Every structure is written in C-alpha cells, then in structure tokens.
Batch of 4 targets.
Target 1
Amino acid sequence: MSLKIIWFAIPIITVLIGLLVSLDGKRLTRHIQVAQDLIAKGVAEPEAMQHSGCNHWDRPFMVRIWKAYPKLPNGY
C-alpha cells in the first residue's frame, strides 16, 4: 500500500516543484524587463533594479518562495 502511495506522490510533488520554479522564472523575467525599461528612461541601474524589485532574486530559492514577491512600480 505505501509503495503505491509513493509512486503516486513523487510525480505530483515533482510537477508542483516544476510549477513553482517556472512561475518564479516568469516573475523574474517580468521584473528584469521593468528594470530595463527604467534604465532606458534614464534611471541609474542600481536604483532601477531596486525599484523594480529585482533584488528579491538575490535570495536563495527556498527562502524566496516563502516571502511575498515585490510589486511592480505603477504603470507596469
């Protein structure tokens, strides 16, 4: 019985972890696009990275998924 549960649970857990990583990557890509837009508008790079929330991804993945993701600046 327990072997059947393990064979059922492992793929589900793997899919959930894959979804978390995929969503995290999409959010990072969007925040980097916003930072690039801010840099193109003349904002200094460190300020643009901080204002767009890119500094959130400096933390390890396991710490980052439990924290709230930063909001994008108004207009994005």
Target 2
Amino acid sequence: MKKSLRYVSMVLLEAQPAWLALDRKTRNEIMTPLRTILSKYPDVSVRWLDSDAIGHGYTDIALCEYNDIEKYHFLWEELRDTIVFGHPYFLLKDTLFGIEDAYVAFENSKN
C-alpha cells in the first residue's frame, strides 16, 4: 500500500504593534474564532511557536503538518478572513514548505 506524503509548512508571522498594545484578555478573545476554525480541520496539525527573541523579521511561527494540501489551503483561507489577519494584527511574512521523507517515497516509487 502506498503511504501518503506528509507535508510540513512553517508559516512565518509578524505581530503588529496593534496586537502588542492589546491586553492579554482581549488577545484571547480575538483568537477564539481561530481556535474554532482550527478545530474544523483536525487533519491539519498546527502548533504555534514564539520566536520573538530569536527570529529575524518574524515573531511567531505556525508549524503545520498535513497529508492533504487542499485542507491546509482551505484552513488558511478561513484564517486569513479573520480579524487577526484582516486588521491586521499579524502579517504573513513567508512560508517554508517541505515534504517529510520525500526521498524515501521517491526511492520506493522506483521499486
């Protein structure tokens, strides 16, 4: 049986001054719709990483793992429609993309 590819994206984000000016209670309230959206896509694992102290040009990373790029894309379409990105409180700076063990899948396809 063919194993599906596992994709990984690191979405680099930059918190904006408007976000940093908010108190933590307000930030949590603003993030509630994002948690609801994330729960609609259980096949896309998302971990939020802080990188303020060590990042260059970004403050946060959304580390996403998934097998279905369409679900990943639809997730981000919904996230981008929220106030978090529409205000914007965060800017999408860049996305790094990779495929876990892609060379193994390629080698196995030749057998």
Target 3
Amino acid sequence: MTTWGASDDIAGGTLNDVTVRNILRTSVGGKDLRIRVSNANGDQPLVTDSVYVGRQEAAAGVVPGSSRRLTFGGSTSVEIPPGAMAISDPLPGPVPARTSLTVSLHVVGTTGVITAHNRAMQHSYKSTSGDHAADESPAAYQTESSAWYFLNAAIVEAPQQVETVATLGDSITSSVGTTIDTNRRWPDVLADRYGQLPEPRRLAISNEGISGNRVLGGVAKAGSAGASALARLDKDVLTKPGVRTVLLLEGINDIYAGATSDQLIAGYRQLIARVHASGRCIVGGTLTPVGGSFVYTPEKEATRQAVNQFIRTSGEFDGVVDFDAATRDPADPTRLQSAYDGGDGLHPNDAGNHAMGYAANLDTLRCN
C-alpha cells in the first residue's frame, strides 16, 4: 500500500547528468519498500542508472550506513518512456512509520520536460555534476529546490487491514502557507493522528494536492496548476496501491476562475460516480474561507456557501469533513481565524493546518 504519494506536475528547465535527492516522509510503516518513479509528463525517455534510499539525517545528509540501492527488474538502471512510470523491486527489510527518507536518483544525460511536484513544502537537493546517489555526505548537493523530482509514490507491504486515504486537492492540501521542511501539512497531522491508534485502526495518507489545481479545468504544463482533478483522478489517485478512500478538498480555484456552484457540483458528482465505480469511498471536505484574499468577492462567497451546503447536506459523499467550520472566524465566517491565516487570507498556516488535521473523525475516513 501507499505510505507516501505526490501528484505529477511539471518543473521548468532541464537536468543534465546530476543527482536529485528528494526527501519524503512515510505515514505508516511496513516492509519491502518500493518507489514509483514517474516520467508521466516527460517528452523523452528518462534514464537513471543509480537510485538509492536512506534515512535523512539533516538537510541533504543521510544517516551513515542507511543508504541502500534500488533495482528495477533486477537492474540498477531503468529507462522510462514518456508518459510512463517504473516501480522498483522491493527493498527487503522494515520501513519505519513517520520517518523522513532520502530518495536519490542520478539522471543520465539531459532530460526533456521534467515530471515533478512543485511547491512541495519540502526542500529537495540537486548535486554537482555526476552520480552522487550513494553519497551519504551532503557535500555534493549544492542547490536547493522546492519540488520533488520524478517521485510518485512510496509503497510498502503492511498489515492487510491498513488502507490508504488519498487527499485530493489544491494548494490548501499541498499546505502552502506551512513552514517548509517541518511536515506540518494537514495530511501529515492526520497521519500522525492515525499513527497513535492501535494497528488495526491505522490508515496511511497519500497527499495528492497540486497548488492551483481545479476540479474542472487545467492542463499539465510548466508553470501551470496541473491537469484537472477530473483528468488526473485515475493516474494520481486510483492507481496508487491500497487507496480505499478519497478525501476531496478542492474547488476554490474553480470558483476564482468563474465556475458556478452548479458546474462545480456537477464535477463533484462525476468524481463521486467514478470513485464509487472503482469500489472505493469518497469523503467531501468543505471549502475553507477566503475573505480578505484575492479570491474573495461577495458573489464568489455565495458560490462557496452553496457548494459547502451541498457537501454537508446532499448525502452524496460517503462522509464529510467540515474544514470550513474548523478554520473560520466566528466573528466573520467569510474569513479564516486570524491565528490560522498564513498571511494571504487564503492559505492556512501551521496552526490552521493543525486544526484541519483534527477536523476529521478518524472513523469517517475508513471505507467500510
């Protein structure tokens, strides 16, 4: 099942004979780690001849002795065609829960379009020229980035009852507004809550937010906000191993772009129908306040309220998480509480994400 995930977007520029070191944080533990490497948005083959996994020490450093090489079909190298992904062979051994791992990948030659996840709220690192994937020292990693490169999922073998919740959304789910490198996104808070439960009640979390993403519109291109939720549902969510519940928090960018409540609700209904047709559950998250932000107008607020009314009362979702109620200012419900505002009236800060992570009844997200 998926213990960590990210949705594919596009980073600008190219990479040439460098190693990228990504930092990811597992949600639940297990064994036999596999990494899914993505060239989904690439326009030419992605070739790597060296991929290593270790435990993060600090920044780009790896805990001494923890670095291990991944293989793909028994080979240390893999060529991934444009539009495709590759899954590594299982790496024997335990995988700890809620632990930061390094995944280092040497790029052979020059890439074309780079498949990445922008605004990750986590630094990644690019090396000086050459293969530095096995380096446990951070010395070669001279350049920081705010994107995850080529990583789509971390997969582990876990007890049969452990399922994955995929949080499908936009920058509020990517948790823009939180402190970088601290794992204070609301899906991380949710993962920490599940981690405190007895094993039969634990769930894994896979964060499938893309900054700027919309339910109804969008394409994957450099500088964009990714393909729409309707377009990326299968690739980014339903193909991830172990996903049994989708937690949807998306629509603010559609409203900003001019969508009506009827149009957005129609999009929700398509997502609901497709998730149900796949045999899974979908939980609706109410849209958080935007008063005081560039998104806000009285007309758009009326649309947000109508959409939230549908999410809360239609009964078409398998459950509801009321993020709006958890974050709004009681004195002015169009706005985030001041203590939760990341500074732009739109994105919750660390405290706001903590409140969002505690908004869910943990049993609501289990697909029965």
Target 4
Amino acid sequence: MYPSDNIFSIYYNIGKRTPFLVKRCELGLARSSSEERRMDPNRDRTFLVETVKPRGKYGKAYGKCFVDGKPNDSYRQECYPNIKDEEIPCAGCGEWVLLDVPGVDMNEIFPIRHTDYVIEFGKYKGKTIKEVYSQDPKYIFWLIEKDPYFRVDFDQLLNIPENTSDRERIIEGEINRVFPKTTPDDVIYFGKYKGKTFREIFAIDSSYIDWFLRNNQTLDIDVSAFVSMMRK
C-alpha cells in the first residue's frame, strides 16, 4: 500500500504528475476496512486528480469523482452543495492514498532500493543498505517509518525465495528478531524489582506483574508468554 497523505504532498512526491487517482481511507470515513477493498480503484469512492493549484502548504485540487469505477458526483452535490466546480473536498486532509498514476510505472516514481543502494544522507552516508542492515538493522526500519516513500527490497535483503508462500512469516520473524518482544525471562530495569526477571518477580509478587501489564505503555510485550506464565 502506498503511503497516505494529503493530496498536495502526494502531488509533490510523485513529481507533480497529473492526473493521479486517490482514495480517502481515513478509518472514520472508509466504507470498508478491508485492505483489498481500500486499494481497489474500482471499489468505493475515488477521485481522479486532474489539476492542482498549490497555495502555501496546501491549496486546491480539482478532478472527477467515481464510485465503484463509474463517474458519480453525488457526494459533492449532496455533501458540498457550495462547490460549483470540480474542487475536491478536504484535499488538504490526511489519509488520502495514492492508487495509480495513469500511464506511469509506480516503480519509476517509488523505486525499490536494492541491497547495493548507497545511502546518501545521515550517519550511514556512503554505506549500502546491506552494510547498514548487517550493522544496525533498526536504522533501516526507522528510515522506512520516517520516509514511507523510501522502499527497500526486503526480499533481496532477507534472501526470501521467489514465489514463496512464507514471505509474510519470514518478514514477521525478522521484525521480531530486530525488535524482540519482552518475555517473562527478561530483566526489568526500573522500579523496586530492578535487576530481577519478570518470572522471578511473579513468584514473589504476582500483583506487581498484574499492575505492570495494566499500566505498561512502552514495552512490546509477548502477551502469550506472560499469560502462559500466569496460568501455571
């Protein structure tokens, strides 16, 4: 799924190309939470952005509205009766998702960085993605989170076999390796039981573990492991 943003940011990030097709996918407004449905240009309401007139950070965008792939302007007519032209409502709001840029290969706009791509900025400037990942894998994940338009070829990076059905499992396993969840056998580094494992604490003060699990907002907990410990 391509990153969600306001229409103007999308416009700049695709090199000011027009037209381009977008869909508003804010959870409160989406007609379906299905990822497949959200990314299908022939399902639900979409806009073909034909003209963008920037003004400051935002501006106005104009284009045609479609519902289930067919021209349908009832949304603007009913919800925004004051709009007399083809202005797209809420163009400056977030959660617009880029679906397509007709006639342009998306890989041209958002090229996938292979393992030999040399990073041109930051503390690892001059190193390849492969070199950085072997030294500091969290940096690559941070980079992707910071810039969703920066796409990395994880299939190549993780040596994932072509056409394998285990791709998602392999990637999930790698994420868990790089960002391990807190388990009962990990040592706690704060509070009155600092230096003890969660399992040791549970044996002498189970109420403290109950309190910790209810109030924790920072650690990524292996919930199933903690539940298993507490049931014994």
